[in-house]
């Protein structure tokens, strides 16, 4: 989350917006796909920022967020509203797309106390139903072997 600091570096406003990987990916795509003049200006004035934006975009292209959009995320959030998950937990579900009970345990605090095994399986089903997997990821199984 974005935080605002005062002169003493104390947190003044900790209520900042959080962005999903999908939103960051979309913003970076817009930034990097501006006209040639926009890219040149960014590269000339903020070389390090341009490099970070490009490297981050290339990383995110290999994650599930590449196949997400605001409608997909909204449908997923609507489908999990009865699970009483925190904002941070929902964000991690969207970003990481967990598909095993162990992954769910790592994302959801005290999941053993808060969720039954059936609810964990239902959450996994909702992730698989609403959040597309990364079909163009860096490694995929091809004829039983990892391929690029």
Automatic annotation (TrEMBL):
Location in or out of the cell: Cell membrane; Nucleus
Chief location category: membrane
Keyword field: Cell membrane, DNA-directed RNA polymerase, Membrane, Nucleus, Transcription
Superkingdom assignment: Eukaryota
GO cellular component, one term: plasma membrane
Keyword Nucleotidyltransferase: no
Coiled-coil residues: none
One annotated GO biological process: transcription initiation at RNA polymerase III promoter
Keyword tRNA-binding tagged: no
Example GO molecular function: nucleotide binding
Membrane topology: Peripheral membrane protein
Function, in words: Accessory protein for the calcitonin gene-related peptide (CGRP) receptor. It modulates CGRP responsiveness in a variety of tissues. DNA-dependent RNA polymerase catalyzes the transcription of DNA into RNA using the four ribonucleoside triphosphates as substrates. Specific peripheric component of RNA polymerase III (Pol III) which synthesizes small non-coding RNAs including 5S rRNA, snRNAs, tRNAs and miRNAs from at least 500 distinct genomic loci. With POLR3H/RPC8 forms a mobile stalk that protrudes from Pol III core and functions primarily in transcription initiation. Pol III plays a key role in sensing and limiting infection by intracellular bacteria and DNA viruses.
Entry similarity comment: Belongs to the eukaryotic RPC9 RNA polymerase subunit family.
Protein name: DNA-directed RNA polymerase III subunit RPC9
Record organism: Cherax quadricarinatus (Australian red claw crayfish)
């Amino acid at each position: 989350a974005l935080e605002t600091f005062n002169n003493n570096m104390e947190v003044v406003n900790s209520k900042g917006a959080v962005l999903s990987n999908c939103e960051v990916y979309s913003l970076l795509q817009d930034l990097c796909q501006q006209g040639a003049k926009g890219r040149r200006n960014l590269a000339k004035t903020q070389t390090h920022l341009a490099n970070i934006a490009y490297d981050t975009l290339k990383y995110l292209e290999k994650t599930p967020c590449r196949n997400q959009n605001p409608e997909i995320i909204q449908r997923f959030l609507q489908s999990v509203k009865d699970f009483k998950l925190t904002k941070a937990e929902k964000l991690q579900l969207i970003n990481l797309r967990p598909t095993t009970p162990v992954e769910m345990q790592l994302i959801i605090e005290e999941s053993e106390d808060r969720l039954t095994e059936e609810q964990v399986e239902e959450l996994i089903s909702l992730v698989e139903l609403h959040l597309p997997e990364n079909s163009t990821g860096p490694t995929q199984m091809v004829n039983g072997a990892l391929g690029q």
